[in-house]
Amino acid sequence: MQAFNSLTDLMNGVTSSRQEDATLPYDIRAEIDWVDFSCTANPLGTPQNVIQAITKAIAEGDLSFLPNRDGSHLAAILSRYYEISPESFLVGTSVPSMISSIAQAYRPCNVGIPAPAPSEYFLSVANVGHNPLKLMNPFSLSAIEPQTAFANGLKFEAAVLANPSFPCARLLSEPTLKRYMETCNWVVIDESNIMLTMGGESYIHLTQKYKSVLVVRNLSIELGMPGIPMGYVVGHPETIKHIRQFSSGSSISMFHEIVAKEIPHTTEYSDNTIKLLDQEIPWMQCMLSLTPGIKVFPSEANFVMCALEERAARDFGISSAEDLIVRLQKAGYTVRDLVGVPGIEGKRYFLVAIRTHEENERFISALRDIISQGSAR
What we know:
The protein is an alpha/beta fold. The chain has helices spanning about 5-20, 25-30, 50-60, 70-80, 95-105, 120-125, 145-150, 175-185, 205, 220, 235-245, 255-260, 265-290, 310-315, 320-330, 355-375; strands at about 1-5, 35, 90, 110-115, 130-135, 160, 185-190, 215-220, 230-235, 295, 305-310, 335, 335, 350-355.
């Protein structure tokens, strides 16, 4: 477990991660036509009704109008879906920006962040004056219990959690969450991928009972359109009212209103997503674990964290995750290098997202070909 002494230390600690995670330029990706196993968005891609709505809006000139900055249209749709007050929603864009909007509404304090975790969590709270603390669980990849962190000398008054976590793909247990709620003034839960898990349950219902709990959701990930940042925060109406004072809404685009109209018509798409992931998450874990030289960490979401075993360099000539990633790119596939992710040590770790079964089969075949070629050298 670790505290960053300054924003400079924090920036130095996560810069390499941000560089490694940066996607390649659009023109390069379009020209080479890689199959992207690094993106954790919905493997079914964007629903056709959403694509058609966006296309129609562009053709009819809707994007020339200014959007409603309070996001009331999307909030009204979400209100009917969750059967809670529209005042419980704050519309936003990317997860880091929404976490920053929440954090800047509170007095600067120590913010505990169970790691491994995205570097953006640390930057989001640090950039608005808080001091992020990296909380490492010495026993497992699950979120550390707050009492264990306190016993090791780390004190914090707020927390940023994830359900499921990234890159470990572990669901957050309700008992652990409630212990954070008991010890923190405010708790943010990133549920970007909760709809893309095996049986994961959202904690949105807790926001209406506890003013200290805020849930961040990511429509860009759920609807398979990571190129259009779009999300929302769910909280108690009084808490959202307080946070709204510090949020200008200037980042909200007309896409929020266009997509909002289509959300009620994505039920079949959601059902198909669940059906696909219930089959493909265990299948991909099994196939990866049967691949020589690859260690797989248990996953409950649509991505799997992997590591090269020590024998990979000796037996297969693969020296690091970066080495493997380069070879996969030559075969037409991209995966995510986890070098520099807070809480990940070493150069052996990488992440594989879940896609359709046909794509997953081709990826596993390519990966095994690379390993077998390495062993033949």
